[in-house]
Amino acid sequence: MPDALTEVLRSVRLTGGVFLDVRLTEPWAVISELTAEDCRPFLADPAQLILYHVVLKGRFLLRVEGEPPIEMHAGEVVLLPRNDAHVLASAPGIEPVQGSSLVQPAPDGGLARVRHGGGGAETHLVCGFLGSEETCNPLLSALPRALRLDLRAGTSREWVEASVRFAASELAEGRLASSGVMSRLAEVLLVEAVRQYAATLDGTGSGWLHGLGNPQIGRALTLMHRDISARQTTDRLAREVGMSRSAFVERFTGLIGMPPGRYLAYWRLQAARQQLRETRRSIAQVAHSVGYGSEEAFSRAFKREFRLSPARWRERPGEVVTGVARPPGAAAEMRG
Questions:
Q1: Rounded to the nearest 5 degrees, what angle is found at the Cα of 89, between the Cα atoms of 108 and 47?
Q2: Number of other residues whose CB lies within 10 A of the CB of residue 66
Q3: Residues whose CB is less than 8 angstroms from the CB of residue 115 and which lie 6 or more positions away in sequence, other chains included
Q4: Which of 190, 198, 242, 248 has the most CB within a 10 Å radius?
């Protein structure tokens, strides 16, 4: 399980930032929603945003429309993988105000802040975000609309709090907090939240995390992600996990949402896109490293998936690819 999960999380390519210091006194209720403008100092135009609240002190209720309320306490973090608008409140039944109307720029040019409430017990939050250029990721799409993380059950609470406070001090000094510290914090928060959530699944249902928890399909996912360039075929994977080809394809597709060949091809292209951005390898070298037998086959698959040739995509590394509205599908060029 850790191998496939780690590799998929790594492929998300998150950028993290902290943008708001919030102190609220009972009674209070606010509507919270992250906007592109909130992230502008850190990230230009992400394809996907995940909002998170780190609870440093106090408690509150979080409500997303259509979902049961979640009670949050100091030492916990809540992430909203779809950036849904939500209400934070000290108690039920309080009429919420729009949170954006309460935001005040810091007088020293540092972290923006909110100060609001009736003067009772205080709740202290730091709000941050995770941004990604990924428009389609089976892990993120499998997560619930609100994901609670108990820092006391996993990551060191002291480390996370220290990192958040460091980011705030950097902003106070005029330095943006979207550097390595915040990206690492973002990664730790998401990894720990996903692991805690995955541990609660009962093995029924469908979705990427359910697939990862299935003994046979989880083993197949680990084999795929352990070496994305390995000579893998559906027949070979089925043998490796002790299933017939037809039963393997049926179970894999039912859980993951696409056949194993298409899934492997999609992740090969994701790995290739990352290499094109972050390395100076030639297109032929990239093609070979992700399991394609020829540069031509790789280029055809890449263009079909991302609407740009590898060379053209590399020339515009800052552009977010938004053309993939269908299930990932570049399976034909699996090597072997």
A1: 65
A2: 7
A3: 23, 102, 104
A4: 190
Beta strands, E only, 33-121:
48-57, 59-63, 70-73, 76-80, 86-89, 97-98, 112-117
User: What does the alpha-carbon distance between residue 87 and residue 31 come to, in Å, rounded to a whole number?
Assistant: 4
Q: Which of 309, 304, 305, 274 is nearest to 290 (CA)?
A: 274
Q: 20 with 126: CB under 8 angstroms?
A: yes
| CB neighbours of residue 105 within 10 Å | 10
Residue 145 gets which letter from DSSP?
S
| Residue 168: closest CA among 317, 18, 325 | 18
CB atoms within 10 A of CB 156: 12
Task: Summarize pLDDT for 47-72 with one digit per residue, the tens.
Answer: 678 888 988 899 999 999 989 999 99
Strands 122-132 and 15-25, by their bridges, are antiparallel
The residue with tokens 């740009």 is 308
pLDDT tens readout for residues 222-274: 888 888 888 889 999 999 999 999 999 999 999 888 899 999 998 899 889 88
**Measured between alpha carbons, how far is 109 from 175 in angstroms, rounded to an integer?**
10
The strand order across the sheet containing 86-89 reads 70-73, 59-63, 86-89, 29-32, 97-98
CA–CA distance, 45 with 135 (Å, rounded to integer): 12
Cis geometry, peptide bond prior to residue 328 (ω within 30 degrees of 0) = no
Counting Cα atoms < 13 Å in the Cβ hemisphere of 45 gives 5
pTM (two decimals) = 0.70
